[in-house]
Amino acid sequence: MSTRPSTPAPTTAPTPPTPPANGRLHRPLLWFAAAMAVFAVISAGGILFDDRILVGVPIWSKPFKFAVSFVAYSLSLAWMLSLLPRGRRVGWWAGTVVMTASALEMALITLQVIRGRQSHFNQETPFDAAVFQAMGLTVVVLWLGALAIAVLLLRTRFLDRATAWAVRLSSLIALAGAAAGFLMVQPTPEQRAATDPAIVGAHSVGVPDGGPTLPVTGWAATGGDLRVAHFFGMHALQLLPLLLLVLTALAPRLPRLADPQVRLRLVLTASAAYAATFALLIWQALRGQPLLHPDTTTLTTAAALTTLTAAATLLSLRGPRPARG
Question: What's the predicted TM-score (pTM) here?
Fold first, then answer.
């Protein structure tokens, strides 16, 4: 009587992120990302060869930073929209609305650069005020389009729960980061006291725009700056999914990460820490504190947040409880 060789027990493999539902990335967003990549190069040339300075920085620095940010933002949204198994038509239109609003905002910023005028907060002439009001409208439309995409993602079921929550929470935090921009349009105390101020709104808190800045970023070096939280929040859209990709890539070498529940807990921990850090950055800026010179209260809060995150990370890495005999 012959005996069959025993079949080896299957090994547990890490669950990869959910593949695209339809394999298609949002083409308008992809084309816009490509256009912004080209425009970033053009803006970099403007920084090098155009010696005009506006509000303390090279005049082409704003379109350069916006172009780079839009490349990352558009590619992330295009990927997330490809994950939708249902509601793809609504998602396509929402993505197209975001792309159109973003393109209009970039066109208006570039127009003001060519004119040598400040694009944001400028009320000096009726035309400047109309440009800024149009920019404000494009931002609102962009935010509503992104909100529609976030709602679709919240309603989507994913095979991998870690992927689901990385996508959902990153989109919600990015929405909050974009909404931080609305705080900048509020008039400063000095502007409220003026009869007819030419500039209404500011990036900085406690110091005027155009003062000493941090290298590369152009953020205020001697006061608070709402752009820090705005930047940090919006780029959750890339960083949290990137964390999940790293965890999945490390899973074959680190068996603990092969457990889908461990990856899910790590994603939730990272998302909570990211959201708390975003809130801390807004709080710090609104109190007029420079990013690199926080006071004792800010440092204590940051230390508590770091401790809680480390503890939650260790708890997230724990294995399953042994079964009781």
Answer: 0.86
